[in-house]
Amino acid sequence: MRPHVESIQDSDYVWHAAELVRGSGRASERRLSVDEEDGSSSLRIDFHTDWHRAAGIHHADTEYHVLEGEMTYGDRVIGPGAYLYAPRGVPTDAIRFREGSRILHYREFGDAGFDPVDSLSAPRWADAREDVIVLDTESMRWDAVPNPGPMPGLFVKYLHVDPVTHFYTRLVYAQEGWTDHRLAHHPCYEEAYTTQGKMSYSFGDLRPGAYFFRPARIKHGHFTALEGGTTWLFRSDGELFNWYTQNEWVRWGGEAVNYGPGGTRMTWSMSSHDIAGGRSWRSGKEIEMLERSVAYQRSVGADDIDYRQHGLGSDRSLIELAKAVDAARLQAGHDSNPHDRSHGDDHSHDQGHGHVHDHAAYGWPEPSSLEHPAERTDEYRYNWAAGRPWRTGDPIPAPVLSSLPVRSRSMGRWDGDGM
């Protein structure tokens, strides 16, 4: 399982000697994200000399995408935008990268192992499937994103789609002014590297070189594509469904033991509303863009509500918690006598009172009703953010919150509009 990496610049990563076994030449890599359980890796590689590797078989599903420079696969020479997909266990031709080339390199479900072969007619592994894909993405056409929901202005070039797992790699372009005012989470992981432009969203700004890796169900959004639009290379390990949230609120707190004023005990609480500091961190232009997104959703008959900028107006978390407390008191007959937490320990919270608090009474569902059918029994039960195949009609799992993502040195402290 890869950890959550949110909006970090690739320049904040240290360089390592590139792990390109059985190759000839010198290169360095920045490890954008790595799965130490199965070897999957997302890397930025720079070639300091011409680099070459003869024909062979990769131990992982492997992808190369040229940001700058030139790739030669067999006899085919392609410049920036070159893309190669080499399935695990399938013989691939010789590959070269010219000195000074910069690429994105991905390995999935395996390590950097590579076995030379004498020719492309060498036998495939018994469990190998799919074939090598070589593309000049610069010559490909942008197609409008076919999924219903987002407003017009989002375009895609599909590079690879696994017909069995639906794992896919694509280039995505959001034209200047494209906006989505909702937050989304998905049943699959999602990672992206920004190649051009600027976008603002709930975790900050995306500029060239910005990278994120989100495990399944991490909530994110409030996208606004700014000057010149924005382009990314996107990857997901399954079919992507969008489950939307609006006007989100989060509050957390606890009882301090030794870090109150003067070292005394204290109770503290903080919300994503507080983090915004009572101000709009978005420009007037961005607010206008977000309101246009609301208008578009309503124009197509989508169920929608007004966009409310986080940090301004009343704190929704306090309002919802107050409503929950009132509902619990009324349900329990405590409306004139707040629940006393100091009573004896001879009964649990719902024993001796003749009642059980019902989440639905104040609009919150029982959490288990939102789980994937196998969430507590399958091999991923230890990790809420593990992706699982989802089909229409399955329960839609609740998002995994990431309210204070760690930010990189060059991107600065996060002060976005919360989760």
Mean pLDDT equals 87
**Please, how many helices?**
3
Termini separation: 23 Å
Proportion of beta-strand residues: 25-35%
Overall outline: globular
Largest sheet: 10 strands, antiparallel
Oligomer: single chain
Spans where pLDDT lies below 50 across 5 or more residues: 338-357
Instruction: Tell me the Rg in angstroms.
Output: 25 Å
What CATH calls the topology of the largest domain is Jelly Rolls
- The number of distinct structural domains comes to 2
**Helical content, roughly?**
under 10%
Secondary-structure arrangement, i.e. CATH architecture of the largest domain: Sandwich
Number of strand segments: 26
Helix-strand pattern: EEEEEEEEEEEEEEEEEEEEEEEEEEHHH
Q: So what's the CATH class of the largest domain?
A: Mainly Beta
Organism: Dactylosporangium roseum
Pfam family, one: DUF4437
Protein name: DUF4437 domain-containing protein
Region (Disordered): 332-372
Structure report:
The strands form five sheets. Strands 1, 16, 17, 18, 19, 20, 21, 22, 23 and 24 form a ten-stranded antiparallel beta sheet that branches. A seven-stranded antiparallel beta sheet has the order 2-3-4-13-7-10-15, with no helix packed on it. It has three helices and 26 strands. 9% of the residues lie in helices and 34% in strands. It has 419 residues and is mainly β. It is globular. The protein folds into two domains: 5-139, Jelly Rolls (Sandwich), CATH 2.60.120; 158-334 and 395-419, Sandwich (Jelly Rolls), CATH 2.60.120.10. The protein has helices at 272-275, 284-299, 316-332; strands at residues 5-9, 16-17, 27-34, 41-47, 51-53, 56-58, 61-68, 71-73, 76-78, 82-86, 91-92, 95-97, 102-108, 114-116, 133-136, 143-144, 154-161, 168-174, 179-185, 190-201, 204-206, 210-214, 220-236, 243-245, 251-256, 266-271.
